[in-house]
Amino acid sequence: MAVNSARLPEAAAGRAHSCSTCAFTNLCRNDGIDENVVAQVEALLVDETSQYAEGQHIFREGDPFDSIAAVRGGTVKTYVLDREGREQVLGFHLPGEVVGLNAIHSQSFPCNALALEPVVLCRFSFRRMSELAALIPDLQSRLFRLLSEDIGKAALLSGDFSADERMAAFLLSLSRRYARRGFSPTRFNLTMPRTDIANYLRLAPETVSRVLRRFRDDGITQIDRRDLRLLDIGRLESLALPVLRH
Amino acid sequence: MAVNSARLPEAAAGRAHSCSTCAFTNLCRNDGIDENVVAQVEALLVDETSQYAEGQHIFREGDPFDSIAAVRGGTVKTYVLDREGREQVLGFHLPGEVVGLNAIHSQSFPCNALALEPVVLCRFSFRRMSELAALIPDLQSRLFRLLSEDIGKAALLSGDFSADERMAAFLLSLSRRYARRGFSPTRFNLTMPRTDIANYLRLAPETVSRVLRRFRDDGITQIDRRDLRLLDIGRLESLALPVLRH
DNA sequence: GCGCCGCCTTGATCCGGGTCAAGCCGGGCG
DNA sequence: CGCCCGGCTTGACCCGGATCAAGGCGGCGC
Lengths: 246, 246
Prior knowledge:
- 2 copies of one chain form a homodimer.
- By secondary structure, chain A is an alpha+beta fold.
- In chain A, 38% of the residues lie in helices and 22% in strands.
- Chain A is built from 8 helices and 11 strands.
């Protein structure tokens, strides 16, 4: 990343910040970029680090948009309520992932975000991020890419896939996302209740239960309450093929 | 939009371009921006204008990404093929809309784009657009917003909505999008075959046919082949409520 | 004008998963 | 220890929409 340090604003010089799972850091990771530069830029961007207890809201639909949040620890659920008050789960955000990108458009959050377990996250001022992006071409293009990446993400929800296909894709998605952040891809916790999984996959909770049982009976997984082991990733992948397409 | 014209590159001085339905023009529209400035910036961005006959491909999955396309006339269908070769329709792009935003991430097109009728479109160099965006803060934020807007768009496909709800939302969406570009919101052509509508809505073609018939019988629409009139927008809106949420 | 072909419609049947209704099981608390 | 409560599982039944199978109909070529 080409950073002309002379052009960087000199604010935030004092603020020390190190956030190894922050989205920004991940944006820059694996590119052989000078770590000092990354840290410096990150210090400019990160507003604050905050914690939330299980069940607390990070933001609510309609809240004014000012910053993007990067999850450092815990799981965040985003959802909307329809006119009858029924919940609709939009997604789960794991450590290292970003929440709130869809708020840029309307300048206010179009959904609610809730901590499913104790959550640590840091907030980026989007205004400051944009200003920096204008100075650092590579940061700009990374932002564009990050936004573009999310456009195609809805594939898991859309499509007329069977319950098995949806569930396989969901478990694989979790596995891959944990792996990317350095966690085990074959053993992790389902940090969300079954009802949320069901809601997210557009299935009935009973169906989720039945599918998970079938996966266990077939030796694809080993599962005890929320403790999950993936025994046969290959089988999961072939099940999820129609959904994930690779 | 604050444009410091002194900072604009002086390329493209000779190229005359006027494209009243181009995405960029629409980005700037309704903001009281000096028309000359818009035209000037547009001239810098627009690479070329090209035409496609019905059935021709605009790009195919895997093609290298270089430019974003704005539809000036006609309808573009985007779709992917799964491993078994079965088509999956991702969306329809009407005049004034943009195709290819989801290619920024991977630098190659993740789907195919096909002209459903004779199509005119113009291509924007995304590289040049980014460069300009760095100079013009408002352009950058408009681009961010455009990308962000698309992230939430998949709602129509996702969700476990009934056939009636999906169809109502689809027709309303077309109506509103045509209206935004100055076409009639109550009478327009379904420029795509029923099979494509069905595929897009994740329904069987037979179901599409039956739902359209029911809408006609109920006096909600008047339809003859592909010529569609919306007689009762209110009823459509209340049907589509769960899908569109406003 | 006639016949073919593609797109669309209509009817009959079937099935995946939703819904309803109980039970299970583990964790927290008195 | 025993009770309660919430999250999860299991079973029985039902329904919306897919699937299968025929036609209808309009446009185009010969």
